[in-house]
Amino acid sequence: MDKKRAMTSPDTTSDNAVAAVTASTALATDSLRFVLVDDEVQFIETFAKLLHHQGHVVHVFHSGSAALQFLAKQSYEIDILVTDYEMPYMDGLSLTQRIRSLGVKALIAVMTAFAQEDDEAKFLQAGADVVLIKPIKVAQFLAKVAERRQLGN
Fold first, then answer.
1. What InterPro entries is this protein classified in (predicted)?
2. CATH for 14-152, among 3.40.50.10380, 3.40.30.10, 3.40.47.10, 3.40.50.2300?
3. Which residue from 8, 16, 32, 130 could staple onto 79, CB 3.0 to 4.6 Å apart?
């Protein structure tokens, strides 16, 4: 990736940045293992950098099939998978279903910019834990993750 190219953060306002730090306090004691999947390279790379700077391990994939291959070969569990819904070849819904069929227990968040009224129910039925509407607000994402992790414990 061209390091000189300006990157747009998924959430750049100072109030949201402060809220993100506050919301991530519950996650700060753990270094979580993330898998991020989106064909929008600039967006997902920026999202990955934000998580990495908070001390998390982040694996980025630009297709569902690449992420699925990675997950099928892993000897350790990931904690959180974040996938876009609209991607070529394999959408986030299909990816979620296939990941669940592999027995992956990670929290799965599906992102979409084109949510329809019944989409959330469809994603949850497929095995997703969280549905996120783009543009993603990092503070809201981290708060949802912390909430879901608390419910899981």
1. CheY-like_superfamily (IPR011006), Sig_transdc_resp-reg_receiver (IPR001789), ST_Response_Regulator (IPR052048)
2. 3.40.50.2300
3. 32
